Amino acid sequence: MMPADSTMSSIVQRIARQALVTFRSPPRFGEEPSKSFLENHGKLRSLMTEVRAPDLKLVPRRSDDSSPRAPLYHPGAPPVTYMHICETDQFSMGVFLLKSGASIPLHDHPGMHGMLKVLYGKVRISCFDRLERPAGGPQAEPALPPAQMGALRRSVLRSTAEYTEESGPCVLSPDRDNLHQIDAVDGPTAFMDILAPPYDQDEGRDCHYFKVLTEAGPTGSEQKDKEVWLMEISQPSHFWCGGEPYPGPEVSLSSI
After folding, report:
1. Total number of domains constituting the chain
2. Does 234 map to a domain?
3. What letters, b where the CB count within 10 A reaches 16 and e where it falls short, cover 67-103?
4. What residue ranges carry the coiled-coil annotation (predicted)?
5. Quick one: angle between helices 11-22 and 35-50, nearest 10?
6. What are 207-250's pLDDT values in tens digits?
């Protein structure tokens, strides 16, 4: 019998094993990561950089119709689907598949770490962070009805970048790049996704959605990170996520 750490183990199994080791004791919001965490996180990033669609037995999909006037996806079909691979108390791992023109709206990951690796296609990811509301700061809040003011969040756009299968993973932490929007670019796309710990409403890790209202800083500012106002909203009606069976190598949790 092969040992659990045999080189014959699939890369998916090795990623799951490394994710569990990495996220057994992750740094929390505002904490400095330990040397051990940084080393394990680096190993996980390296493994995620290597993974490709064939490793998960995924066949890249094509747009249903190349006509520019064709619908981006069939009415009634989910624009995004998810393939569940495995989940523990420490992390969840799966694959998101976005149809051509689809997007996962701007959302957060409360107190969570994450890693996203494109398997085929191209995505554009815009990453934001919440900012503490400054006492008497110069940023004027948008004019909103009083009932909506509590949903307002002062934030900063950290980056907007495109990722393909040749790119390294997109990484988030509890206090960096924690909110993001993911858009399929130029056709269908799929990406492998790790979240640690998983979403859990009972533990205060529920997903919240947002929309960008306006810039918070002066227009024409030379600042590197652009400040914006976000407003928390209900899940957008154009977005929902269906499920698909995962066709790739099985991950044995008992051997992780």
Report:
1. 1
2. yes
3. eeeeeebeeeebbbbbbebbbbebbbbbbbbbbbbbb
4. none
5. 160
6. 999 999 876 544 444 455 788 889 899 999 989 999 999 999 99
